[in-house]
Design a protein that fits this description.
Elements lengths: L2 H13 L22 H14 L17 H17 L1
Helix pairs in contact: 1-2, 1-3
Pfam families: PP-binding
Protein name: Acyl carrier protein
InterPro entries: ACP-like_sf, PP-bd_ACP
Length: about 90
């Protein structure tokens, strides 16, 4: 399962139980469209940290990093690149 597929599954399981995976576009704005609120964002961040074994630092808490499945996937790739390059 790709990162994007895992992210999409989590978002659907937690926030959009009536949506089929093929109906959730990777660029769908989860924040602007009210799918994920501030508490949901904290839940999403905790899941990203746990599932992908990453630390999300205060400087990473830009909503744009968690706005869509694609943005989250790109954030994970960038965070892993920083760890690998450390």
């Amino acid at each position: 399962m790709s990162n994007a597929d895992a992210i999409k599954k989590f978002v659907i399981d937690e926030f959009l139980p009536d949506v089929a995976p093929e109906d959730l576009a990777v660029d769908y704005d989860l924040l602007a469209d009210g799918v994920i609120d501030s508490l949901g964002l904290l839940k999403l961040i905790a899941w990203v940290e746990d599932h992908f074994a990453l630390s999300v630092h205060d400087t990473d808490l830009d909503p744009n990093n968690f706005r869509s499945v694609q943005a989250i996937d790109e954030f994970i790739d960038a965070a892993r690149g920083q760890v690998a390059g450390s």
